[in-house]
User: What shape does this take?
Amino acid sequence: MKIGVVALDGCWDSGVTSVLDVLRTADAARTRVDATIPALECMFVAPTDEPVRTAGGLLIPAGRLIDDCVAAADLDLLLVPALAAQNPATVVDFLMRQDVRGVRTALRRWADGGGALAAACTSTFVLAEAGLLDQRQATTTWWLSDLFRHRYPAVRLDMSRMVVSDAGVVTAGAAFAHIDLALGIVAQVSPRLAAETAGALLIEERPTPSTGAMSDYLEDHDQLTSDFEAWARAHLHSPVGVTDAALALGVTRRTLERRVRDRLKTSPYAFIRSLRAERAEHLRVTTAMPTADIARQVGYQDATTVRRLRGGRQQFPR
Assistant: This one.
């Protein structure tokens, strides 16, 4: 998965760094879960080719131009970290800046092309101002919820959850919800990898302010979904299906269907299919194995099915 982190002058320092830390930790943990999980690659995206200065004065090196990324359509997700606003008036001032206007236009083109989006805290206003949250469920930071409701009545605001995903757009709450946002993105790729990443970042079990930021993700973690993923990855070489998985996990097919749809926003069948495509692509690029042999390694009898899988691989979010 290729993720473009949209850097804007005055962005919240920890909003950028926490996202990068979580995603890089997840990428390093991939081999402990399953080496065939696609790499998580982050890059900076910006409205100009000049370095970006964070609210705390850090310089983010010049990244790819956002217009070039939208035109190339070679990323899986554009993620906008928060802007460091101190009051509602500052948020509105941010939205009126020329560079932010340009980013809004680019994000609309990106979304029109089917591109996935994510934002946290005050950057949810950037998506909403672009009309990208209209008629969608979304969340924002608690202290700006009244302004958000007043300014964007077409958005179905949900302040009961830290992270909300709806039709290709993921939003998260307050500033430190960037951690939950990043873990939610990882969970769309692999629930097991998200759990492994959260475990690696939680240095100790004693509740502290530093570990509390991840409590929302951990409370929402679904063990059945992780067990289903583990079972599916272990049986990709066999022509097994959803009924086999439910039987092995000791639940009804209906329960498995419901839990996977609630957590991954897709069906168990589609998730298994995406895992087969992922494994087949990994074998294609890392071995000299003929396509027919790859097909058998991922539970299919003929190469034609693998070619169709490759052409129809799903991208985040499912």
